[in-house]
Design goal:
alpha/beta; Rossmann fold; 4 helices; 7 strands
């Protein structure tokens, strides 16, 4: 599914829509985000986290230097930024956190992680410039992610028109 968003506010809203839906799931799929610098990955994450209980205790920022930020939301969010890991082997601590089932995992620059380490249940979210806004492609992998995308389909379609 592809959605064209007019601006950063629409990207925040897409994040909120995803966050509300993911919070209702027992085992939410991971979100793997890719796109150029400034494409909207952290903005989407900020919107998603803002929709979760406990968001008032979370300050969302790109975890470029720490690789992962943990937010005290319900469910807890592990926000990864793998930009600095390009051409490096996977860090065992990152892999352990990704494999853990206690958090909703959001991975920026997922393309820098060997695909064999990608979670089986995932929603791949790709950002492309579509001046004046951005085009976002969502691709489900795994049953839970497919059901999520099917359920959100009508809401995502209207979001692009708002």
């Amino acid at each position: 599914m592809t959605v064209t968003l007019r601006d950063a506010d629409a990207t925040l809203e897409l994040g909120r829509v995803l966050g509300l839906a993911l919070a209702q799931m027992d085992a939410p799929p991971a979100l793997l985000l890719d796109g150029d610098l400034g494409a909207g990955k952290t903005t989407l994450t900020r919107g998603l986290v803002s929709a979760l209980p406990g968001a008032d205790q979370a300050e969302v920022s790109s975890p470029s230097f720490n690789i992962v930020n943990l937010y005290p939301t319900r469910p807890p969010v592990a926000h990864f930024d793998l930009y600095r890991l390009e051409n490096l082997p996977a860090d065992p601590e990152v892999l352990d956190q990704l494999a853990g089932g206690d958090s909703l995992n959001i991975v920026e620059w997922a393309q820098f992680l060997d695909p064999r380490h990608w979670p089986g249940e995932r929603l791949e979210v790709s950002f492309q410039d579509a001046a004046p806004g951005r085009r976002v492609r969502l691709r489900a992998r795994g049953n839970a992610a497919e059901h999520l995308l099917e359920a959100l389909g009508p809401r995502l379609s209207t979001l692009a028109k708002e």
